[in-house]
Amino acid sequence: EAGVTQFPSHSVIEKGQTVTLRCDPISGHDNLYWYRRVMGKEIKFLLHFVKESKQDESGMPNNRFLAERTGGTYSTLKVQPAELEDSGVYFCASSREYGRGFDEQFFGPGTRLTVL
Amino acid sequence: GQNIDQPTEMTATEGAIVQINCTYQTSGFNGLFWYQQHAGEAPTFLSYNVLDGLEEKGRFSSFLSRSKGYSYLLLKELQMKDSASYLCAVSTDSWGKFQFGAGTQVVVTP
Q1: Half-sphere exposure in the Cβ direction for A103 (13 Å, CA)
Q2: Residue A4's CB: how many other CB atoms inside 10 A?
Q3: Of A1, A50, A73, A101, which is most buried with the most CB atoms under 10 A?
Q4: Is B87 an interface residue toward A (CB < 8 Å)?
Q5: B109 to chain A nearest CA, in Å?
């Protein structure tokens, strides 16, 4: 089975611009998570979708970040307008069933975002 | 506060054993996971513990003590390809919200 894929792998933009990151989870996985790792820090939770619904968005930094998962398949994370502190690696992960917090999460390779 | 602590770096010789410790204090606990991450790649799952005790999977074993807030990952018969970052993560609720440690960089030398 294909793994979690993310696009683009790298993005370099200027402060104030908009960037949209995409994640395609493993087919049939209801749960989709977004995480972020900023330089030198640990990976941090951003939000969690169950199918097309946002289950938990407590980790979203501010309202410049907007995540969607139309139809419960792929997800997008838009940053508008981007700021310097948004630079980092954005990971997406998916897992099979909701309500099972001990399910393995499968991670994508991440999108490295650089804001200049 | 909430935190997950693990050593920053460990060095070991090919064929040896290395133990990576992880201590945690989190608001909730629904399992502890270990992931391996090579530079520029996706974290890949190694093992998880929900109950106290030792879980063995080939050359990798993981141990958990919930009362002590402590886990370790044991890597045996080290190979050069085991050079990577090892991430300790706690699932803090029943929905799989992970909280990560900063990762331990393991360097395997010939």
Answers
A1: 21
A2: 22
A3: A101
A4: yes
A5: 24
**In the numeric block, which tokens belong to residue B3?**
């935190």
Q: With CB atoms and an 8 Å threshold, state whether A102 touches B30.
A: yes
Beta strands, E only, B1-110: 3-5, 9-13, 18-25, 32-37, 44-49, 53-57, 60-65, 70-75, 84-91, 98-100, 104-109
What are the chain A neighbours of B94 within 8 Å (beta carbons)? 99-101
The dihedral formed by the CA atoms of A53, A58, A61 and A66, expressed in degrees to the nearest 10 = 10
Amino acid present at A28: G
Q: Kindly give the confidence (pLDDT) of every residue in chain B, 110 residues in length, as a single tens digit, with 9 standing for 90 and above.
A: 679 999 999 999 999 999 999 999 999 999 999 999 999 999 999 999 999 999 999 999 999 999 999 999 999 999 999 999 999 999 998 888 999 999 999 999 99
**Helices (H) and strands (E) in chain A — how many of each?**
0, 11
